Amino acid sequence: MHGIPGAAIPTFKPLSAMTPASRRPRSNDFRYADERLRFVIRASGLHTALFARHIGVCAETLYGMLHAGAPMTPEIVGRIHAHYPQIDPVWLLCGPQR
Prior knowledge:
Elements: H1 33-44, H2 48-55, H3 59-67, H4 74-83, H5 89-94
């Protein structure tokens, strides 16, 4: 084994010990609001900050929804739908209806 003799081997926390919502497994069925928002942003072809500017909101608002678990609001959904009328606002706000 190469390395410095006596050097400590780093230890890592298991993924289950990490708290951010982004650490949960992807569902691939759009049941989470951040997955639906991420899909719409990718479909727009814009990066997140430019998408936020395009719909008229602060980029931190979208980053909060994508990474910090902030809830999707009807105002944001309305702004997205105003610029992208092909996006169903009910789907964006509530997810797939079963």
